[in-house]
Amino acid sequence: MFSPATKKSSSAARKNVGIRRDYDSVLLESRSPLQDSPTVPNRPASGTPAPWSSRLSVIARMPVKKSDKEAEIDAISPVFVGEFPKVVRDAQDILLQNHASDDPSNSGGIDKETSLAWIICGKRLFMWNCLSPTAFIGCVELELPSTILEGGNVGKYSSNSSNWLICVVNWNNAKRTAGNVIPQSSSAGIVIFNKKTCRLAFWPDIYNANRFSPVTSAVLHEESEFTNYGTENSNKPLPQSKLYINSLIASPIPGTIHSCIALACSSEGKLWGFLCSPSGIHCKSIKEIFRQESKNSAPGLSKGYPRSIMWHPFTKLFDKPYRQFLLLTNHEIQCFEVKLSSEFNMSKLWSHEIIGNDADLGIQKDLAGQKRIWPLDLDVDSDGKVMTVLIAIYCKDRVTSSSYTEYSLLTMQYKSGVDIAKPTGGNVLEKKAPIQVIVPKARVEDEDFLLSMRLKVGGKPDGSAIILSSDGTATVSHYWRNSTKLYQFDLPYDAGKVLDASVFPSLEDSKDGAWAVLTEKAGVWVIPERAVLLGGVEPPERSLSRKGSSNDRSLQEERRNIAAGGNIVPRRASSEAWNAGDRQRPSLTGAALRSPQDEDSEALLFQLFHEFLLSGQADGVLDKLNNSKAFEREGEINIFVRASKSIVDTLAKHWTSSRGPEIVVSVVSSQLVEKQNKHQKFLQFLALSKCHEELCSRQRQSLQIIMEHGEKLAGMIRLRELQNTISQSDATGFGLYSGSDTRISGALWDLIQLVGERARRNTVLLMDRDNAEVFYSKVSDLEEIFHCLERQLDFVISVEMPSLVQFQRACEISNACVTIFHAAMQYRSENDIWYPPPEGLTPWCSKLIIPRGLWSISSFMLQLLNETNRLDDSARLDFFSNLELLSEVLLECYSGAITAKAERKEEYKTLLEEYWNRRDALLNSLYQQIILFFEATIQNSTEQNKEQKVILTEVSSRLLSVAKRHGGYQTMWDICSNLNDSELLRTLMHESMGPKGGFCWFVFKKLYDSEQLSKLMRLGEEFQEELASFLTEHPNLRWLHEMFLHQFSSASETLHSLSLSTDYVSPSSTENIESCGSTCRLTLANRKHYLNLAKISAMAGRNFGWEVKMKRIEADLNILQLQEEILRLLHDTEERQSIGNKLLPPVDIIELCLKMENPDLSLHAFDIFAWTSASFLRSNTTLLEKCWRNAASQDDWGRLHQMSVTEGWSDETTIQTLRRTVLFQASNKCYGPESQAFEVRFDEVLPLRQQSSELSSLKDTNSSVEAVLMQHEYFPDAGKLMLSAVMLGSDWDATNPGTSAALIDH
């Protein structure tokens, strides 16, 4: 394709090629004559060995010290990750040796969904999983039917990459079994089309090719109809007008076995459908594109169009019989929906014009200088929301008359609100961003070359795209920092053409990996994200045209110049660069680079540590490191942490994946022990140099990480021992199900493979290593085990497995997790003095990913608990024991995480709730299993009850210990209850004094809720303070406990407040406290009873002010008695029932007194005011005035006035008559010499008389009794009598009647 400028390498880098060549010379003697033969095409004269040569020796693989410039060049180099299978190499060698073709090039590709790579070499098709480590590569070899080859011979076009279209059909829809931690299909079919011969072939199952032979079609031509072409009738003569198929897709048909449909678009403007099954291939023309769109299609532009066809990724997520596919024509994108069946029912959903007169919809045509526009290819991101189109525009400069081609990317997205699942209409897309120009002025190529270009999207960096062309080049385009950067894949030796590119799938959901490139001769390479970011260059601005350009030069000269600029050194043995210090993760977007000072300090530290290993001396180390500012970084970037990580993560030089997993099994233990010894020496180095003391005081987190490396190393060693034990056990038998070698199979081995595969995917520098090798080498990433357990447990333990296998594998994984944790805790215990103070630091085993990963396997085991009846007693106990130990580890991790968050003053309530819920679920389920097992045991036992109790105590002892440590109070209560062991209960109550009362409060609440109140009060004899604190919220029992403690005054206060409570629910009486329980409401009799008890308690306590307290209680008793009297006099039965035993507020009682119009009750209303507080009296003056008006209305003052005038009453008669009135009695109650009131007198709130100046103002806020009476209807006539009654009552002394005031004269 186009060739962007590349960063040139220095002379030192070119010299390094020679250095490598010297190291690699050890291989020259073993090379075959064929490799040295001058007849091998394109073989460099330098003799640089090809990447498929045997692995280098240990000496040859030692990393060479690189200069900064060389390291920079290495950073932008592609990384070798996968070799061709041996059978492919052999086939290539035979093809070269026999010179069977004029063009020995291969065609090949990579299927993104299944990660299957394929190469056609001669008459054979080879397929293998390109993600598999070299040792595990399994290659499928298929013989191409002679009918789809041109004349049955291996001609020039039989292996030309532009002549073959291949679709992989994944029958199991990417379902992954536990043994297949590398995503691959266990059952797949192949649809292959030869453009030259126009024939189609179909393999129903490539993994069972001997059982299912391929079926082929006849030659496709324009008149092909719905015909069945099987193996028996596929040799028909070739018609004259054959089709030219541009693109091909296939999808399985739901509900069928080994049947699929394939869709193809041809240059004649048609869509073709193929129904492929083991019985044959059916073909039909199902759509004519350009005939329907003839108005929008200019003459002569349909060549090569429709250009490409692809399935819409969004519809792949749903298990439905319909799928959408996209079609790229010469001016628009079209979307169809097809039913996955033999009927080929298809409907058009929408179309969007990308080349037209509106620049807002896509690319505007007919602009000045434009001669022609080609949409070359279409691809969609993994979410199905963004579509990218590769555009080529043939232009002519009107000034210089030079011609050039402009390449650009057009990105479209669905408009907001459009339903992607069922979009309809003609305007559903919009531009996501302005058109991205890749190369503004490139060489003018012929149309066939342009139409051979392919586009891929989805790789790293995010938003990048890779463009492939038929000349074998691959260029990554990435828009970064407001400009387009291009990175061209290139190798210094002859690697052949780039056959295809894809994206390494990530084990994370909705996340793609780095770009993977399949070369013709050098295997599979990866372009790291860092290489694209650092090695990308801006597109050249000068014209690269070779047709009439003012800068016209020969194509050969131009290619020589570009090749000279691209002579970079790729990193062949990629994983060894990991040991050479380049441990950066590939995801570098936004990451800050380390400063030269950090690198110098790290180099000095390694040098000083090396000298310590040789001499055992560490004098002056601290000063040197201080001078180099080695203690200024904290956390993972600290140089001591990096040095520690380098020790524990070192890759063993002599591990080699070419020897398979056996080498891993045999040498991993010794390598881990060597790492442990070296790490221990590193700690000694820190101690002797006093760096440990400096880290402990200044950088506690860094020291914590260093020590945790030791913990993880200890855990890894124990894990390796466990795996070795499992591998040597004769009782495993897991490998038969997972399909792997029984010596190394099992759930733990599958988990190791999964974690190793995840590490390889995340770090492309490790792609050439074995999964187990990577897992055991990257010790510092041990927590990735728990990440995989949380996200991908179904890969290790599938619900499709037999139940017994699920039990076994769950126990194995559980045992592995517990082993890691116990080893880490043992290391911490043995090396406790090395650790910094823990305050505010989060241990690695308390990071959230650890407990949540443990919960994933724990919850799975909880689900299996219901099926434990399928196990025998020993297996059931083993399963229970594993879950019990795992639960203990899980809860410890949660506890550590919560403690760390609390110390750092971070929010932890959500995590605490999660911890409580999962603790209760685990402990309760485990105890239920204990009870079930115990009940099953005693049914077949003749032992006495005492012995049965001992058995239950033994089997529940460990669970009781876990519950006690983590506050599992419900489990503790259940154990004590089932054992009926009050002594154990009291012991636990003493030992579990947690927050909010601890276990004591839990026991008290249980007894209170179950109404076992006598037991609760008896516990107060031993737990006096705890019960007193608990009963603060339960005053119905608190007074009893206070009396037991001889706190009589407090008991009196409690009883008094309890008797006046309006909404409290409590026992009805102390005599019947056990039977009534805590659900009875207080009656008026109960309240009076509590008030009487309060009086007795106050008298017994005789604290300061007890006399006043007694009067207050007496007043409340009087109010209660008044309420009872009112209820007796209340004639309204319905109202009386509604009141019932409710305690009425004083205001309501007064209102009832006034309502009933009873003289005695009218007087009692004033009593209530006298019995209440001053605040009540002051806040209810209006009600008090109402009481006076009601009192005045109780007597007929008009009649009394008339009688006094008619009969001529004397003063004595008048006084005697007025003494019988309610006004007199009310005045005597409130204002008389013997009146009683609390805190304030009535005359302070409502005086009897007003001053003469105030008599004219009846609305004065400072009212009086006189002012209230003046509003009475008879006051103008009987006012003298009314005021006389009030004044006589205020002065009347029943003990001395002669002292009463005289009658009012006015």
Please summarize what this structure is.
The protein has 1306 residues and is of the alpha+beta class.
Note down, in words, how this protein is organized.
With 1306 residues, this protein is an alpha+beta fold. It has 46 helices and 32 strands. The chain has a 5-stranded antiparallel sheet. Strands 21, 22, 23, 24 and 25 form a 5-stranded antiparallel sheet that branches. Helix 17 packs across helix 18. The longest helix has 31 residues, at 873-903. The radius of gyration is 47 Å and the shape is elongated. The relative contact order is 0.05.
Instruction: State mean pLDDT (0 to 100 scale).
Output: 77
How far from one another are the termini?
125 Å
Rg value:
47 Å
**What is the general shape?**
elongated
Q: What is the helix fraction of residues, given as a range?
A: 40-55%
Strand order of the largest sheet: 10-14-13-12-11
List low-pLDDT spans: 3-71, 100-104, 152-159, 174-182, 231-240, 292-301, 542-592, 654-661, 730-743, 1064-1079, 1253-1261
Structural class per helix/strand content?
alpha+beta
Extended strand count: 32
